[in-house]
Structure prediction request, 200 residues.
Amino acid sequence: MLKIFFFCKKRTILVELQEKETMKILKKTTLILLLATLIGCSKDSDKDEISFADLKGTWEVTFYSYDGSTQYNSINNNDSWSTSYHGDAWLLDFHLEITENPNDYSVTGTHKIDFYFTDENGVEYYYVGDQIKNEFGTYVRNSTSNVSFNINNDIKHGTILTLDDSKLIINISSSSSEINADNILETKKRDEYYTYKRIN
Prediction:
């Protein structure tokens, strides 16, 4: 009976030791995983952080397209209708230049465009054309991802999606409203999508 008790006691102690070792391993594993997660998040935060200076330089376009629409509202008889358009650029040959102090920018060059226009009746028309980019203005960096461009008091709002040492992806939107000579309120909206690679 004594032998059995001694054997049981040894076995109990052995089980307790094994449980303690297992708990130590689990605690170490949990700590390692937690540290790895924190380090990974820290690296991601550093990577996502966009510094002000990164925007400055010369950028060559690699992708450009746009969407737009115009809403018409007749003031005289309350009639309303709309048109829309879409453009896909190709044979891209234009650059974006951004400087600091002063905060100037320019977009110059040429490209071809596949232009799709949908009229008020839903009929779509297709055109191909040559376009010249000749845009000069100033900009304000409002936050890490938001930029305002000013071209002769015409304001465009830019949203930076990607910005690193070699690549800039930015969406630029603009809108306006005015009453034309026929007493019709025209509300225009336009969204432009650019991808650039840094060349300087």
Q: What stands out?
A: The radius of gyration is 31 Å.
